TrEMBL record, chain B:
InterPro entries: MetI-like, MetI-like_sf. It is a multi-pass membrane protein. It comes from Paenibacillus xylanexedens. CDD domains: TM_PBP2. The keyword Transport applies. Belongs to the binding-protein-dependent transport system permease family. This is Multiple sugar transport system permease protein. Residues 72-262 form the ABC transmembrane type-1 domain.
């Protein structure tokens, strides 16, 4: 017997489930592969790494050591040095690179479209070469004898050859220098696209008001490009905090730990000394730094963006 | 007054741009000229910016001393497979997230996206142990390929691109009793070709240039990719300047050729998803 509150009699439980799958089954099937890969190759490893960071890890039997690993790394001079090196590298490269990228984009934007394409292509070119290729080329550029390209260039001004990568005073700076002169291609293309997206009417209105070139730049161009700048800042910081290939190939973290970055230290701790627990703790410190910085950048930078 | 200002700006801009274009290209140029001058004889070899005598012997030495052909084959195979899997799965998932409404879609999407902030170093050690000790897949193609089979960044790109496609065609196909996968395959994919082209190119280049994971997970010479092989060569033979430059060129040249032939896609592609993302 049916009451008024009961569901329509023609919908038994099984067919409701069937209808759910008919409506949504395909969608779940479409995202199945990425979700599975995510569970196995991201979520599971992250959780395992978290547990490992509290263990003295051994493949056969690991022992729980609580905060020992974290305590060890806080007391470890090399760890602090690697943090310092990474911060110097990031502060030394990211803002300078954004400035260079911005100035180049602003100048390219003034050119005719044929020249725009030419400069875009030229400056993007190094971005298609691998980190390994770039590092090998710069190894040769920094060659300490007077056959190195940079020392030859200095020689033109009568300066003595410098042992760029081989002494602690210049090694980290060399990596920064290589980064300055490297590729700004992707950033240039993003800035140009954003500049093209600024409505011309804003500049026309500013002209009518007799606003100076500087006013137009500081009141229109720069604020409207803020989302692009934010994007370059966030991605720039994240990548430079993880710099590895150039360190591994060019300096091996040396001399005297002058170029040991945190990503390189994690690699050494794990795969040279097989201290998996300690390395996991180090990697979580890196993760926390990256997440905190990203969140601060988003909060600070996106507060006054208007579209 | 205003136009003289503009003219001065243009002159300054042109000079600066030409200088910077040279700065950008000189390392690549030097790699190329360094690879075609013979440096075998002396340790104090000084390659010339304008080579006096061209010689391919650095390339001969590079290929003779290494398994470069095998490494190139590995890189090509892996890059092609990764391009296919990424394009297929990222389009499929991107389409589902952009156009299909289903319970939990937002939660799943933002969870995936959120993990992009976690640096690779965190997952690296467990991933390595999982592959080598649990699945016993160390030093195999499967181990190199599986974790990179579809990246979250690519799903995000495809979702952005798919959401610009007209929904009306999907409804029309559904009325015509086309299956959901049929709609994806016959309606969506053909419309998404520009986005797919960009995704394919960038995935191919990124896979070709990938270093860290293949470097960790491979340990035999035959399983190395060209980037990993190159790095090992530098450690073994860092005094042979010419062969090093030849190797660096071999590692980059296929991508440089690809760049020049598909320049338009490269230069347009970067802006998809990044601007107002």
């Amino acid at each position: 017997m049916q009451t008024a509150l009961a569901p329509k009699p023609s919908v038994p439980r099984t067919s409701r489930v069937a209808r759910f799958w008919r409506d949504y089954g395909w969608a779940y099937l479409f995202i199945l592969a990425p979700v599975l890969l995510f569970l196995i190759f991201t979520l599971y490893p992250v959780l395992t790494a978290l547990i490992m960071s509290f263990q003295k890890y051994n493949i056969m039997n690991s022992t729980w050591v609580g905060l020992d690993n974290y305590e060890r790394l806080v007391k470890d001079e090399t760890f602090w040095k690697s943090i310092k090196n990474t911060v110097i590298f990031t502060v030394g490269t990211v803002p300078v690179n954004i400035l260079i990228t911005f100035v180049l984009s602003y100048f390219i934007y003034q050119m005719k479209s044929k020249w725009q394409t030419f400069f875009k292509a030229t400056m993007y070119l190094p971005a298609v070469a691998s980190g390994v290729t770039i590092s090998i080329v710069w190894l040769a550029i920094f060659d300490p004898t007077d056959s190195g390209l940079l020392n030859r260039f200095l020689g033109l001004f009568g300066l003595d050859p410098v042992i760029w990568l081989g002494q602690s005073g210049t090694a980290l700076f060399s990596l920064i220098l290589m980064n300055w002169l490297g590729s700004h291609g992707a950033g240039i293309i993003l800035y140009l696209a954003a500049m093209g997206g600024i409505p011309k009417s804003l500049y026309e209105a500013a002209d009518i008001d007799h606003a100076s070139g500087w006013t137009q730049f500081s009141k229109i161009t720069w604020p409207l490009l803020k989302p692009t700048t934010l994007y370059l800042l966030v991605t720039g910081v994240i990548t430079s905090f993880q710099v590895f290939i150039s360190v591994y190939l060019m300096t091996q973290g040396g001399p005297n730990f002058a170029t040991t970055t945190i990503a390189y230290l994690i690699y050494e701790t794990a795969f040279k000394f097989y201290e998996f627990g300690l390395a996991s703790a180090q990697s979580f410190v890196l993760a926390i730094i990256i997440i905190v910085i990203s969140v601060i950048q988003f909060k600070y930078f996106s507060s006054d963006i208007e579209y | 007054m205003k136009s003289t200002q503009k003219k001065i700006l243009l002159v300054v801009a042109s000079i600066l741009l030409v200088v910077w274009a040279l700065v950008t290209v000189i390392p690549m140029y030097w790699m190329l000229v360094g690879s075609v001058q013979d440096s075998a004889m002396s340790a104090s070899f000084k390659p010339q910016m304008i080579p006096e005598q061209l010689s391919l012997s650095p390339y001969e030495r590079f290929f003779a001393k290494t398994d470069a052909w095998r490494w190139l084959y590995n890189s090509l195979l892996i890059s092609i497979i990764l391009t296919v899997t990424n394009v297929f799965f990222a389009s499929l998932a991107g389409y589902a997230f952009a156009k299909l409404k289903f319970p939990g879609s937002q939660a799943v999407f933002w969870t995936l996206l959120g993990t992009m902030m976690i640096p690779a170093q965190v997952t690296l050690i467990p991933l390595y142990i999982l592959m080598v000790n649990v699945f016993d897949l160390g030093d195999t193609y499967t181990a190199i390929i599986l974790p990179a089979a579809v990246s979250v960044g690519n799903i995000f790109l495809m979702k952005q691109f798919m959401s610009t496609l007209p929904t009306s065609l999907i409804h029309a196909a559904r009325i015509d009793a086309c299956s959901e996968f049929g709609i994806f395959w016959k309606v969506i994919l053909p419309m998404a070709k520009p986005g797919i082209a960009v995704l394919a190119i960038f995935t191919f280049v990124a896979s070709w240039n990938e270093f860290f994971w293949p470097f960790l997970i491979t340990n035999s010479n035959e399983m190395r990719t060209i980037q990993v092989g190159l790095a090992s060569f530098v450690f073994a033979e860092s005094t042979d300047f010419g062969a090093m430059m030849a190797g660096a060129t071999i590692g980059a040249l296929p991508m440089i050729i690809l760049f020049f032939s598909l320049q338009r896609y490269f230069l347009q592609g970067i802006t998809i998803g990044a601007v107002k993302g």
